[in-house]
Amino acid sequence: MRVLRPDLPFVALVLASTMAFALAGHFAAGAVIRQHQAHQLNELTEVVLRRSELAVDFAAGSLDELARRNFASCEPAALQAIRLHVYQRSAIKDVRLVKPDGSVICSAYSETLEFDKGWVDRRDMLPSRDKTLFLFRVEQFGGDALGVLRDVNGNSALVAIVGVNASLFDIMPAELRAHSQVILALSNGEKLGEFQTEAGKSLPAPIGFERASARLPLHATIRLEDAVLSSWNNEAYWPTLAVALGLGAIFGILLARNRRMEGPVADLDRALTAGEFKPYYQPIFDLRTGRIKGCEILARWLRRDGSVVPPMNFIPLAESSGRIQAMTWQILGSALTELRPLLRADKNFKLSLNVVPKHLLSAGFVETLRRTVLTARVSARQIVVEITERDELDDLARAASVVAELRDRGFRVAIDDVGVGHSGLSRLKGLGADTIKIDKFFVDTITVDASTTTIVEMLVALAKDLDMSVVAEGIETEEQLRALLASGVEEGQGYLVAPPLPAAKFNELIESRRAAQPGAARSGAKALVA
């Protein structure tokens, strides 16, 4: 009788691979945790910078409006109009008319001049990428402020005095607040404001994370104690080690069987061929009435085994590998087929599609979109192209040309991730879009952070000045809805109404809403929970 023995070389190779990966995972876990921490802190530093850029954009937009209305004057009527303008914008403390050398001619609130400890010469003001916009620090007895100068003509300029509120920088996680310092400064090193729970406290062995604005002379820094990082977000150690063990076992098995490792990109190609990428739909609704006015298409990967892969697990790879374009067209085609009855029955219903900047600027994008929509027999004015702002548009002029062509063809255009992406005032103006979408980051904090309310109000005011509509993303509670309404936002999307849904469930939601609201739509949060 022959005794069956295990395949010792196979087992040994698998065990050796598992142990090697486990050892590497032990050392790598620390690096993974540090990398994750650094990523989060870099993002927080970016948020400080974006908030500051937004405040400058808001001030610059206000000065442009005053100049456009010919209020750059010291005449009593002009000063009265400027005072009203300042009164309506809480972030701006004063507006002054200055000479070409920067010296003050007159002020909307002349008494504020008494609080200035000094006033810089034009030569000491810092230029922005926009050659007519300059920034400088205004030293005052009550704390420093930011001066934003906009040239009006060769004889004069307007200056907005922007209050630097330390609460704008209160963004650190609770466990790090007492051990950190958030600083905003000009590019020449002059400090504009900072947040630290214990003012003047020295941070032992601090490490820093810095970001400089590409278009404004602004510099943001987050400093915190190195030691506190050892206990912050270190939950990833055991999952990382478990992943290392699993990878080691899998690698050993594949290596032992001499199988070719194709990698995740090959998985994407197979899924594209099999049509496994499907559209899910999240409603966009009127905040006052709860009426669903449209939806955003969100990608999901439905594997053959029935599992659903969330977008964060494949969208970055699709973008970096160049598969995002094919995936976008596949998902749009499916969405137009699934929602064609709804789109044809309600000509005011809008379908929003996310497009990355590289895809927007690719050859033939507009014509392919037009042909796809035309083939589905859907009106172009029902399609909204959402340009994601987390990736920067390298060629603004070309992008503006594509946006203009889209609008000429009847499509609408939205700018996504406004406030945390790369969108500044000049970009919002230059693209010529129809809608801005406020990022979920601001919605999450609008009921607990007064500075967020100020930022949202700024965005709404900017959108109104540019004749654009506003949509807020990620609304989850009625309190957030009421706060957004109070800030002037009229449309939104989020789990308060529904998560992203497959077509069948989305159509059920639409039908149930219509049945529940056969007559005039009910208003406010009450309609949203119907």
Summarize the entry for a quick read.
With 530 residues, the protein is of the alpha/beta class. 42% of the residues lie in helices and 21% in strands.
As residue ranges, the low-confidence spans are: 1-6, 520-530
Estimate the mean pLDDT confidence: 84
Number of strands: 19
Strand sequence of the main sheet, in spatial order? 11-12-14-15-16-17-18-19
SS content category? alpha/beta
Work out the radius of gyration. Answer: 27 Å
Give the domain tally.
Answer: 2
What is the CA-CA span between the terminal residues? Answer: 75 Å
Main traits of this protein?
single chain; 530 residues; TIM Barrel; alpha/beta; 2 domains; disordered C terminus; 16 helices; disordered N terminus; 8-stranded mixed beta barrel; 6-stranded antiparallel β-sheet
Task: Lay out the secondary structure.
Blueprint: H1 8-68, H2 76-87, E1 92-98, E2 104-107, E3 126-127, E4 133-138, E5 145-151, E6 157-163, H3 174-177, E7 180-186, E8 191-195, E9 206-212, E10 218-225, H4 237-256, H5 264-274, E11 277-286, E12 292-302, E13 308-309, H6 315-321, H7 324-345, E14 350-355, H8 357-360, H9 365-375, E15 383-387, H10 396-408, E16 412-418, H11 425-431, E17 435-438, H12 440-445, H13 450-465, E18 469-472, H14 478-486, E19 491-492, H15 503-516, H16 524-528
Helix pairs in contact: 1-4, 1-13
Walk me through this protein's architecture.
This is cyclic-guanylate-specific phosphodiesterase. Residues 1-22 form the signal peptide. It comes from Bradyrhizobium yuanmingense. GO terms for molecular function: cyclic-guanylate-specific phosphodiesterase activity. InterPro entries: CSS-motif_dom (IPR024744), Cyclic-di-GMP_PDE-like (IPR050706), EAL_dom (IPR001633), EAL_sf (IPR035919). There is one protein chain. With 530 residues, this protein is α/β, with parallel strands linked by helices. It folds into two domains: 1-261, no CATH class; 264-503, EAL domain (TIM Barrel). Helices cover 42% and strands 21% of the residues. It has helices at 8-68, 76-87, 174-177, 237-256, 264-274, 315-321, 324-345, 357-360, 365-375, 396-408, 425-431, 440-445, 450-465, 478-486, 503-516, 524-528; strands at 92-98, 104-107, 126-127, 133-138, 145-151, 157-163, 180-186, 191-195, 206-212, 218-225, 277-286, 292-302, 308-309, 350-355, 383-387, 412-418, 435-438, 469-472, 491-492. The strands form three sheets. It has an eight-stranded mixed barrel with strand order 11-12-14-15-16-17-18-19, surrounded by four helices. The chain has a six-stranded antiparallel sheet with strand order 2-1-6-5-4-3. Helix 1 (8-68) packs across helix 4 and helix 1 crosses helix 13 (450-465). The radius of gyration is 27 Å and the shape is globular. The termini are far apart. Residues 1-6 and 520-530 have low confidence and may be disordered.
